[in-house]
Design a protein that fits this description.
Elements (H helix, E strand, L loop, with lengths): L11 H4 L2 E6 L5 H10 L3 E6 L13 E4 L25 E4 L1 H10 L4 E16 L18 E11 L6 E6 L7 E4 L4 E4 L11 H12 L8 H16 L4 E6 L3 H14 L3 E7 L7 H12 L4 E5 L1 H8 L5 H28 L7 E5 L4 H8 L17 H8 L3 E3 L7 H10 L4 H4 L19 H20 L8 E15 L2 E14 L7 E2 L4 H14 L3 E6 L13
Parallel strand pairs: 1-2, 1-3, 3-4, 4-9, 10-11, 10-13, 11-12, 13-14, 16-18
Antiparallel strand pairs: 5-6, 5-7, 7-8, 8-9, 15-16, 16-17
The structure holds glutamine (GLN).
Catalytic activity: XMP + L-glutamine + ATP + H2O = GMP + L-glutamate + AMP + diphosphate + 2 H(+)
Main location: cytoplasm
Function: Catalyzes the conversion of xanthine monophosphate (XMP) to GMP in the presence of glutamine and ATP through an adenyl-XMP intermediate.
């Protein structure tokens, strides 16, 4: 798939002082990048196999991450030695520390007798006239740090000295005598390490001298300029929007950059939430001024879904139909564009790829694992790029989700929209478990609307990662108005999560859930039971299908 970045373009790492994080496969590597950005220092992650000679920019500092290998093992990854000649500060974390020690002498790293997972009390050493090393500035008191290692340094590498210790680790932190090379046995990037962020700040800002200018306000200006150059004076861009945070923010950014030469298409697939299509249309056009076309294909979708009950079959049908409808709309826009003298032909397709997708596709998975190329759900980008010959444009490619939200605020998008819970592409079709019928979609929609509005009224919406109501395929017996009823079961699900990789059920008060249950049973015709799903993820997933 073609990328949006070409050498001639102005990429963030060429504008902002950038700390390069080389990934040795730790599950925490992305957190290093995130923490630095929280400090307004721009950081990018690349796999540990990245050669310095292949970089066309110069980092302000380098961090070597942790990793599952042992440095002395056959096939363990090793960093390109050229980074050590670059003269910029280097910080090794866990595996990174071991790598620094190992390249000096292979005897420096051995398997420890006791593995060390969890907390340790760290003491920064007073070295220079009672002062701690610059890396520990402001961290003079004992601090709790988080360890996760089996190997350890057998000896201090030549040219280094110890700058902090724990009871078990004589070399918990080391520094080179004359060069800016540091190593930590613990993980400053995880929140279990107290004040870990201060330590990263001391490295990035204090030692590397990186400026703290990574703000969304600056990013907006830079990205708008980049889009304008890329698209040119007359070029046009096409994109799908759903009303979700990412597609809305990306669309607004395109609109700011090229106005009506950006065409957004919203496909009504018949399984959106109550009044959602109309609300999204209103917000995007009236509030945000985006050039939007709504393709109402709800009847086609609902007809095609009738009788489908297998989750994959539903997803496949919706994904395929979506592409057909989108393509037909795109064709109309392209034809109109071809006849206009104000603008050129449509050359680009907007895609709301985020940095975690990029990280996922480039993170180091070991020498035998081939690096996975990024693929997008639904196949639409592929169809538009390979099939229609459009080029991808991905303005959110460098951003984490919370940065996308900040960017949205910066662009004047409402708090409500910016904080909106994710909603799956196949929508309510996968929340009506089993067979999809118009009647059951309507039931799920009404129940969901009651649940979500009560969550909002209770002021809980922003504390919850995702919440929804689903309809169970079984039915249950109840008595309503003295009459036996054989009705439907509504399943409520709400989860608390930071990254959607793991989640726990939201701990509502019983009284709240009772009120929701009563309202749903009273107001949604055909429902006689309401249950709450307490499953965490794992083993559950967030959606039910
Ligand atoms: N695998 C190495 C060890 O066990 C490094 C671990 C890490 O980087 N967290 O010591």
């Amino acid at each position: 798939m073609s990328s949006t970045r070409s050498a001639s373009e102005v990429e963030p790492h060429k504008i902002f002082d950038t700390i390069l994080t080389l990934d040795f496969g730790s599950q925490y590597t992305h957190l290093i990048t995130r923490r630095l950005r929280e400090l307004n220092v721009y950081s990018e992650m690349l796999p540990c196999t990245q050669k310095l000679a292949d970089l066309d920019w110069t980092p302000k500092g380098i961090i070597l991450s942790g990793g599952p290998y042992s440095v002395y093992e056959d096939g363990a990854p090793h960093v390109d030695p050229a980074y050590f000649e670059l003269g910029v500060p280097i910080l090794g974390i866990c595996y990174g520390l071991q790598e620094i020690a190992y390249r000096i002498s292979k005897d420096n790293v051995i398997a420890g007798t006791a593995r060390e997972y969890g907390h340790a009390d760290l003491k920064a050493k007073k070295i220079d006239h009672g002062h701690v090393d610059r890396l520990f500035e402001g961290l003079e008191n004992d601090m709790k740090v988080w360890m996760s290692h089996g190997d350890k340094l057998a000896a201090l590498p030549a040219g280094f000295h110890t700058i902090a210790t724990t009871q078990n680790s004589e070399y918990a932190a080391i520094a080179h005598e004359s060069q800016h090379i540091y190593g930590l046995q613990f993980h400053p990037e995880v929140t279990h390490t107290e004040n870990g962020i201060q330590l990263l700040k001391n490295f990035a800002v204090g030692i590397c001298g990186a400026s703290t200018n990574w703000t969304m306000a600056k990013f907006v200006d830079q990205e708008i300029a980049r889009i304008r150059t890329l698209v040119g004076e007359k070029g046009q861009v096409l994109g799908a929007v759903s009303g979700g945070v990412d597609s809305t923010v990306a669309a607004k950014l395109m609109h700011e950059a090229i106005g009506d030469r950006f065409h957004a298409v919203l496909v009504n697939n018949g399984v959106m939430r109550l009044n959602e299509c109309e609300q999204v249309r209103k917000t995007l056009t009236e509030n945000l001024g985006i050039n939007l076309i709504v393709a109402d294909a709800s009847e086609q979708f609902l007809d095609g879904l009738a009788g489908l009950d297998e989750p994959e079959a539903k997803r496949k049908f919706i994904g395929g139909k979506f592409i057909d409808v989108f393509e037909a709309e795109a064709k109309k826009i392209e034809d109109a564009a071809a006849n206009s003298d104000k603008a050129g032909k449509i050359e680009f397709f907007l895609q709301g790829t985020l940095y975690p997708d990029v990280i996922e596709s480039i993170s180091f998975k070991g020498p035998s694992a081939t690096i996975k190329t990024h693929h997008n759900v639904g196949g639409l980008p592929k169809r538009m790029t390979e099939g229609q010959g459009l080029k991808l444009i991905e303005p959110l490619r460098e951003l984490f989700k919370d940065e996308v939200r900040q960017l949205g605020r910066e662009l004047g998008i409402s708090h409500e929209l910016v904080m909106r819970h994710p909603f799956p592409g196949p929508g309510i079709a996968i929340r009506v478990l089993g067979e999809v019928t118009r009647e059951r979609v309507e039931m799920a929609r009404q129940a969901d609307n009651i649940f979500i509005s009560m969550i909002r009224e209770a002021g809980l919406y922003d504390n919850i990662g995702q919440a929804f109501a689903a309809i169970d395929p079984s039915r249950a017996v109840g008595v309503m108005g003295d009459k036996r009823m054989y009705g439907n079961i509504v399943i409520l699900r709400a989860v608390q999560t930071t990254d959607f990789m793991t989640a726990i059920a939201y701990p509502f008060e019983n009284e709240f859930l009772s009120r929701v249950s009563t309202r749903i049973i009273n107001e949604v015709h055909g429902v006689c039971r309401v249950v709450y799903d307490y499953t965490s993820k794992p083993p559950g997933t967030i959606e039910l299908e």
